[in-house]
Amino acid sequence: MKIRNKLILIGLFIHALISVLLLRRLLFAPGLISRGDFNWPYSSDLYPKYSWHETYQSLRIVNHDIITSWLFIFPPEISSRLIFFLIFFIAGASSFFVIFKLLEENSNKKNYKIIFWSSVVGSLVYVANPIVIIRMGHLFLQWGYSLFPLLFLVSHSIAKNLKEKSIRNLVTNVIILLIILTLMSADPHWIVFGYLVIGCFFFI
């Protein structure tokens, strides 16, 4: 295995550990998480009942099911903790990978130790900053935040494909971009933020 691939795997493992350490009190405490966007009515009969939100007495946003629907196969105590862990892990792993890849692409002499530790520190700041911590209850906003580095990277790749006139790579990256935008659409903010980021690569 190349040193590059080993370092990426180590970086992913580090962020799995960091996610557990940051969330240790939440993950291992007893009881059900019920705060912010976690105030949804749990039921094994998901689709007939979940068009209506009993707590807020309003229609549910269908795109929320991108996150919540598959988690209902687990007990709610496990589901709520699992989504927290996944959000923090994906945010750390995606930001680590994106920083690593961009530094690698733009380094004349590839010193992988510097690239690795720069990526670890940068991704740690991305995950464990005060803004993220105080917004932990905003489940859908955090979900989009965790995927944001990937949106940035794919947008960068599309701009590069257009300059190089690489049609096959362009089509592949556009499809990936649309999938990421769809996943991020669980929170309407990211529909706006996402297109603003994409536009920056083409109009600035």
Rounded to the nearest angstrom, the distance between the terminal CA atoms is: 39 Å
- Characterize the biggest β-sheet: 2 strands, antiparallel
The portion of residues assigned to helices is over 70%
Net shape: globular
How large a portion of the residues is in β-strands, by DSSP E? under 5%
Average of pLDDT: 81
The counted number of beta strands is 2
SSE series: HHHEEHHHHHHH
How many domains in all? 1
Structural class: mainly alpha
How do the strands line up in the largest sheet? Answer: 1-2
Number of alpha- plus pi-helical segments: 10
Low-confidence runs (pLDDT<50, min 5 residues)? 44-49
Query: Over all CA atoms, what is the radius of gyration?
Result: 19 Å
What is shown here, in short?
The protein has 204 residues and is mainly alpha-helical. The protein has one domain (3-203).
Describe it.
The chain is mainly alpha-helical and 204 residues long. The longest helix is centred in the middle third of the chain and has 30 residues, at 76-105. It has one domain (3-203). It contains ten helices and two strands. Helix 1 (3-22) packs parallel to helix 6 (112-127), helix 5 packs antiparallel against helix 6 and helix 8 (139-164) runs antiparallel to helix 9 (167-184). Helix content is 71%, strand content 2%. The termini are far apart. A two-stranded antiparallel sheet has the order 1-2. A hairpin with a 4-residue loop joins strand 1 (52-53) and strand 2. The protein has helices spanning 3-22, 24-28, 46-49, 65-68, 76-105, 112-127, 130-134, 139-164, 167-184, 188-203; strands at residues 52-53, 58-59.
